[in-house]
Design brief:
The complex is a heterodimer of chains A (about 375) and B (about 1050). Chain A is of the alpha/beta class and about 375 residues long. Chain A contains 10 helices and 19 strands. Chain A is globular, with a radius of gyration of 20 Å.
Chain lengths: ~375, ~1050
């Protein structure tokens, strides 16, 4: 049996099917992480995308019951060199093919993933389609060409909570605007004792303020930030009224809210090895990335934003703060999972910002 | 932080000779470091005693001192050079220890030299057991719990606290004798009592036993701004209990989830920060296969063997970056030379599997204990890269050159199941083949996992290969369909392995493969998993789709490297390969190197225009050549490995550059060689080929004893012996070899005499002989184990002329283009040829350095068609240098128990050092000191001399006595010496009861041992035990009277407190 991955530019790759059977289209992106496929597969930010793993052996340690970033997988397809059929790890509960089958994600293995990665690097991420049924690559290429672009799709509502819910805690109250939040963001807030309200992406400023939170966290999420104008509007209204911390899509939403612009990157950043320099301390952190859009540096100054973090590889904006409002954000993932955990200090900064703001308000009698 | 401007001159300490545990990786590290420092505009002073290194080449540092790595000599260099700083972290443990000594003794302070890189305090915290424990405790990182117990009660109390199993190790016993594993209180009591008795200080160390836990390594880097990055994670296939140097290691980590991996990653960063390391550092962890629990095992606060592996596995130049950090730079200021775009501050992402396989010396030391444990025994290693685990494993196995193309090891098929079980429980070097055999017999993975402790993930991969082998065996050659072949090739199975399994010829498999178009492609090692465009010309093969190594249009030449470091084929051949590559580039051609040794300079990505990290078997080499289509291949510089391939490559239509293959064969084939010598009227010791035991006795009778016997089909002095009578000959024939008409034995007259050696370069018209070396030890001691002296001292002109004449004749007759090495024996005034090697020999780096003739460069250019005359060299013997260079062998006997240290025709040394001076005795002294001999100035000499050597030994012992040494001797020797009028104290042989000589050695009452071998090879227990005791207690033990004479000469010459000046290589005259 054969599976085919066809790209909109006419290139196609043949391989063996694993996981779910069928046909799915999406934006084809690559991730260079050597561990963490379970977290990647369950990271809602990959909604709408077919993920290529550059590390050739995937599934070695199976899939366990704990390391999920969401209850299910939103990935549209999974491309590997070799999937492991006999995983080995004390926590492994499933093998990857069964997990993907359960989640309805078609996989293709035996692909020259390095050749595919080079292709995406050279020509940019593009639309593609995985099929375990079709035999005519030409027809699949046509289908890929006529499939929707990533931008314009409404994916945030698909992956986020529909109802507001609370995870009680004794500490600071955080309103988490869920655009597809990874569970580890919640775990980080819990670890700091926060009283968490998880809000649907369309929650308005009034509703949020009525919860009387100490701060707002804008989560990660899938797709183009221009496709969530309602969230941008909410953040604009909240700016200056509450401390705000943004992660990934939340960072982009914050930029748009303040009047800066975002753009689509050629092939984005996806992996666990990107060096990011904290321009304030001069320290470099190795960070976990998953983004295909970025904030346009040129447009930041006019929006009252300044760069705090920069990517050492391509110099792109990785973090920012408002020059006088209590707002800061990062393009990468301080919650890790997968990836290095050394940026979790940003959660502490968020806590400090909330405390500082509270103090400021009370001392100014407000 | 930019470069520290207060630094102008910096000293680098090398690691000295190659020994087990410290191999070529430090030449690689040191070379990178010297270059990196000079790039920053610093003047570099280098000290290293090992001449066979690239780092000691005159263009690598500004001032190079080939001097012993002792405090005395290094301090003298500091005094002469006055460097501003010293970089200690790149010369292995030797370099680090030297820096510690220099600091502690106040030398650094005296001369105002700063220690660069990781501070001494951090090194102490990492290396001191208690300091390390308390540092880890302070940051909350777990180390295995342990206690030093002086009584059983203390051990029992500890067991009550942490539970079982526990390891008990008696303090201060050799090889851990008297220790063991305790699973319960009863066993603990028994082992502790035994251990307390065995320990001279009545102490045992009781520690949590992590046997069976997974062993992980993380290679970390930290800069002066506290930025930390992980270069590479590695997982040992062998669980805890086997030294990581003896473990099969894969990169990256395979069986940990991201959560588990990030836990040890985070821990390693915390540790390197807490210690305050600056530069590269290796952290080892044990992880529980059944929980999230881990322990920190060890930290190496320096560039190590694992760093070299991590560098080659990822493409990240750890040593170079460490050196830059040492002089003040930070990671975000250092360019990533691999991508040319990004900075050194990132974590490499790899998109392939890397596997390291150690190379052990048990093919040479057949009597050694092969069991693997906490003492490293491997002399070298190979690395393989592929897109599959199976592929990396299979490439690594065949890169070892141990005579198997796959997972089949001859002989194992006849083992009983119980023997296999036993060998899996107690791993030795054969375990990979043992467990493959177990799988072949259908043993369950669970069973094998229980015995070996190896993770099922790896066992399943090995089983995949075994299943493939079985399938192909079942199907036979007819069943080799394109699909099956493709699948097998993706698993890395060599054509010869498939041929063996299918019962056909390798050529058939290759032909089938070519017919179906099943060919490998080459992928790039780029540090970033293709995320960025890279410029590194570093490739590996795989059976995947896209070929990235598209050949350039330029004319190119390929050089075949030497593979893993092993006894007989050491770092010298990497030195030669690198120089050949440089010479090719110098000539405006593109140089391609094929090699598989991760420890070397030749496999650094910027040595050649293109590096192919591949096994050195005909198939793999031919594949590379088919991809590259070079003008030709050079096989002279990688030792015997490429020479052995030459015939096959030639027959496959590859152009071998240099000496024609037929002529190489004429030098190596006994009959053809005899014919050649007869034609040239050059004498050689008489000898013949024996096809039976009777035949051998016949020949011996004809030519007379003693005779040198060896099998005709093994190279490199293996199973070679000198026998003195019929009895010994019969014993040799019965035990060492099986003589059959297919496997004859060569019987040659053993001519006792002085061994002389030359390396020469010939171009068809001119033969340049850089010099004649004289061996200190007589012929019969392997040339690799002899002390060599250049210029040859006390040699008559007519002997020199004779040697020059023979060398020229042989080089011309053999159509040598490039290098030739010839060994001669001077027997009763007559010169005989012993051996001709139509390739670069292990003395080439040594001779190049002392004569200042760029031998490999000249030879390579000659091979490429140039003439010596146009390169500025005349023929004949080159005028002798004013410096004397003495090359001394270095052994690793203290790491290999049960190996007899006696010198003989089989090579045993692992490395070499050079002593250089204007005077011979001084050069000899330096060589002996550098080789680790403590030259005693007074004390007691112990002599046990075989009867055949007694007369000869008398004047020697008299000389020692005259110098004021006390003489001790065993029965026969004592009596003989007494009769000769020497004052001697008789001591008991071992079997004569305590106190015997071994006791004397152990109680450190002996300063020098002279022990010659009594007879044949049968382990003569007494002598053997004396020699072993000497090795284990660090007492110089001389087994050749010639070496002893040299030592006496040195002792007579050297007076303590003598002043002398050291000369850097650049000023040799």
């Amino acid at each position: 049996m054969k599976a085919i991955l066809a790209l909109e530019d006419g290139t196609y790759f043949a391989g063996r099917p694993f996981g779910s059977r069928g046909e799915r289209w999406g934006e084809v992106v690559f991730n260079t992480g050597m561990t963490g496929y379970q977290e990647i597969l369950t990271d809602p930010s990959y909604c709408g995308q077919i993920v290529v793993m550059t590390y050739p052996l995937i599934g070695n340690y199976g899939v366990n019951r704990e390391d999920f970033e969401a209850k299910k997988s939103y990935v549209r397809g999974f491309v590997v060199k070799e999937e492991c059929d006999r995983p080995s790890n004390w926590r492994a509960s499933y093998k990857i093919s069964d997990f993907l089958a359960r989640e309805g994600v078609p996989g293709i293995s035996g692909v020259d993933t390095r050749a595919l990665t080079k292709h995406l690097r050279n020509y940019g991420t593009m639309r593609g389609i995985i099929s375990t049924e079709a035999t005519d690559p030409g027809a699949l290429v046509e289908k890929a060409r006529s499939s929707p672009h990533l931008s314009g799709q409404q994916m945030v509502p698909e992956v986020s909570t529909r109802e507001i819910y609370r995870i009680e805690g004794q500490g600071r109250r955080v309103a988490l605007m869920d655009f597809g939040s990874k569970l580890n963001i919640i775990r980080h807030l819990q670890a700091r004792g926060c009283d968490i309200y998880v809000l649907p992406p369309a929650a308005g400023a009034v509703e949020i303020l009525s919860l009387n939170p100490d701060g707002v966290l804008l989560s990660n999420g899938p797709g183009d930030p221009l496709d969530v104008p309602y969230a941008v509007e909410t953040v604009r209204e909240l700016a200056g009224r509450l401390p705000i911390f943004g992660i990934c899509l939340g960072h982009q939403i914050m930029a748009l809210a303040m009047g800066a612009k975002t753009y689509k990157m050629k092939f984005g950043h996806r992996g666990a090895n990107h060096p990011v320099k904290d321009l304030v301390t001069g320290k470099v952190y190795i960070t976990s990335h998953n983004h295909g859009f970025s904030v346009d540096e040129e447009t930041m100054a006019g929006a009252g934003l300044e760069i705090t973090h920069r990517n050492l590889n391509d110099r792109t904006v990785e973090g920012m703060r408002h020059v006088n409002l209590p707002m800061f954000s990062v393009q990468y993932h301080p919650e890790a999972s997968p990836g290095p955990t050394e940026s979790d200090y940003l959660f502490d900064q968020f806590m400090e910002m909330m405390d500082g703001y509270k103090q400021q308000i009370s001392s100014s009698g407000g | 932080m930019p470069l520290d401007k207060s630094l102008k001159k910096v000293m680098v300490i090398g690691s000295g000779p190659i020994i087990i545990g410290q191999a070529a990786e430090f030449d690689y590290a040191g070379t990178q470091a010297c270059r990196a420092l000079r790039e920053e505009g610093l003047e570099v002073v280098l000290v290293n005693s090992n001449p066979a290194t690239i780092m000691t080449d005159s263009n690598m540092a500004d001032r190079i001192y080939i001097e012993p790595l002792t405090q005395e000599f290094v301090a003298r260099v500091i005094g002469q050079e006055r460097p501003d700083g010293i970089v200690p972290g790149l010369g292995g443990q030797v370099g680090l220890n030297m820096a510690k000594k220099l600091s502690e003794s106040g030398v650094l302070e005296q001369y105002g030299v700063r220690l660069l890189g990781t501070p001494l305090e951090a090194i102490r915290r990492a290396e001191d057991r208690e300091g390390f424990k308390s540092t880890m405790k302070a940051i909350g990182e777990p180390v295995p719990e342990s206690v030093v117990a002086g009584t059983l009660d203390e051990a029992v109390a500890f067991a009550g606290e942490i539970g079982f199993p526990l390891v008990v190790r008696p303090a201060y016993t050799l090889g851990g004798t008297g220790g063991g594993l305790a699973y319960n209180m009863e066993e603990l009591a028994e082992i502790t009592n035994r251990g307390l008795n065995a320990s001279p200080i009545h102490q045992v160390l009781v520690e949590r036993c992590l046997l069976g836990w997974k062993e992980m390594e993380i290679e970390v880097m930290r800069d002066n701004n506290d930025n930390c990055i992980v270069i590479c994670s590695m997982e040992n296939i062998d669980p805890m209990g086997i030294h990581t140097g003896d473990s099969i290691v894969v990169a990256p980590v395979q069986t940990l989830t991201d959560l588990e991996y990030q836990r040890i990653r985070t821990a390693s960063l915390r540790i390197i920060r807490a210690l305050g390391v600056a530069g590269g550092c290796n952290v080892q962890f044990a992880t529980d296969p059944e929980s999230l629990q881990y322990y920190v095992i060890e930290v190496n606060p320096r560039v190590s063997r694992s760093s070299a592996l991590a560098s080659k596995a990822t493409g990240y130049p750890i040593a170079k970056v460490s050196a830059k950090i040492a002089v003040g730079l930070n990671l975000d200021e250092i360019k990533n030379t691999v991508t040319g775009k990004t900075y050194a501050c990132f974590e490499p992402a790899i998109d392939y599997v890397v596997l390291k396989f150690p190379r052990w010396p048990f093919d040479k030391f057949t009597l050694a204990n092969r069991r693997l444990g906490t003492q490293m025994k491997a002399t070298g290693e190979v690395m393989a890269i592929d897109r599959t685990m199976e592929g990396a494993l299979m490439k690594a196995v065949r890169s070892l050159e141990i005579g198997t193309p796959g997972l089949i090891m001859n002989g194992l098929e006849s083992w009983a199941d119980q023997d296999l079980d036993q060998a899996m429980r107690n791993a030795d070097d054969r375990r990979m083949f043992v467990l493959a055999e177990a799988m072949r017999r259908g043993m369950l993975t669970e069973h094998i996992q229980k015995l070996t402790g190896i993770d099922r993930f790896f066992l399943d991969k090995i089983r995949n290969v075994v299943e493939m082998e079985k399938k192909i065996s079942r199907e036979g050659p007819e069943g080799l369909s394109p699909e099956l072949l493709t699948e097998a090739k993706r698993m890395g199975c060599a054509d010869s392995y498939l041929a063996q399994a299918a019962g056909t010829g390798e050529e058939n498999v290759r032909a089938m493969r070519n017919k179906c178009g099943i060919k490998p492609v080459y992928k790039m090692v780029d540090t970033c998993a293709a995320e960025f465009e890279s410029v590194t010309p570093y490739y590996y093969s795989c059976y995947d789709e896209e070929n990235e190594a598209l050949p350039t249009g330029k004319p190119k030449v390929a050089v075949l490297g030497g593979g893993p470091i092993r006894i007989g084929q050491g770092i010298e051949f990497d030195y030669c390969s690198v120089h050949s590559v440089w010479a090719i580039r110098d000539e405006g051609l593109e140089a391609i190197i094929v090699n598989n040794n991760p420890e070397t300079v030749s496999t650094d990505f910027d040595t050649a225009d293109r590096l192919y990290f591949e096994p050195l078997l005909a198939e793999d080499v031919l594949n590379v050549l088919e991809n590259e289509k070079p003008e030709g291949v050079i096989v002279q510089f990688g030792g015997q490995t490429p020479i052995n391939l030459a015939g096959k490559l030639h027959r496959s239509g590859v152009k071998i550059l240099g000496t024609p293959v037929e002529d190489t064969d004429r030098a190596e084939d006994r009959e053809k060689f005899d014919k050649l010598l007869a034609g040239l009227d050059i004498p050689r010791p008489p000898g013949k080929t024996a096809f039976s035991v009777e035949g051998a006795l016949e020949i011996a009778k004809e030519i007379g004893f003693p005779v040198l016997v060896r099998p005709s089909y093994v190279l490199g002095g293996r199973a070679m012996e000198i026998v003195y009578n019929n009895e010994e000959l019969l014993s040799y024939m019965a035990t060492a070899v099986m003589v059959t008409p297919e496997h004859p034995v060569l019987v040659d007259k053993y001519l006792q005499g002085v061994e002389l050696e030359v390396d020469a370069i010939a171009d068809g018209e001119t033969v340049l002989i850089p010099g004649i070396m004289r061996h200190v030890e007589r012929a019969g001691v392997h040339s690799g184990d002899s002390i060599a002296v250049y210029p040859a001292q006390d040699l008559d002109k007519h002997v020199k002329d004779q040697i020059v004449d023979y060398t020229m004749k042989l080089a011309m007759a053999l159509n040598v283009r490039g290098m030739i090495n010839i060994q001669y024996v001077l027997h009763r005034g007559r010169v005989y040829v012993l051996e001709v090697n139509p390739r670069a020999s292990r003395t080439v780096p040594y001779m190049s350095k002392i004569t200042k003739i760029p031998m490999v460069s000249l030879a390579t250019k000659v091979i490429l068609g140039r003439k010596l005359k146009e390169l500025g060299y005349e023929g004949g013997l080159y005028p002798e240098s004013g410096m004397v260079g003495v090359k001394a062998p270095v052994f690793s006997f203290s790491k290999l128990l049960e190996v007899d240290v006696t010198l003989g025709p089989e090579m045993k040394s692992t490395g070499e050092v050079m002593g250089v001076d204007h005077s011979y005795p001084m050069a000899l002294y330096k060589a002996l000191v550098a080789a680790g001999y403590m030259v005693p100035s007074q004390g007691t000499v112990l002599a046990t001399i075989a009867d055949k050597d007694k007369e000869e030994a008398l004047p020697l012992i008299r000389g020692l006595s005259d110098l004021g040494f006390n003489i001790c001797a065993t029965g026969g020797t004592a009596e003989f010496l007494r009769k000769a009028g020497l004052g001697v104290e008789k001591v008991n042989k071992i079997r004569e009861g305590s106190p015997n000589i071994a006791d004397l050695i152990r109680s450190r009452k002996i300063n020098l041992v002279l022990s010659t071998l009594t007879k044949g090879k049968a382990p003569e227990r007494d002598g053997f035990q004396i020699r072993r005791a000497a090795v284990e207690y660090g007492v110089p033990c001389l087994t050749s009277l010639d070496t002893a004479w040299a030592m006496l000469e040195v002792m007579t010459f050297i007076k303590e407190g003598d002043e002398f000046v050291l000369t850097p290589l650049q000023e040799y005259s």
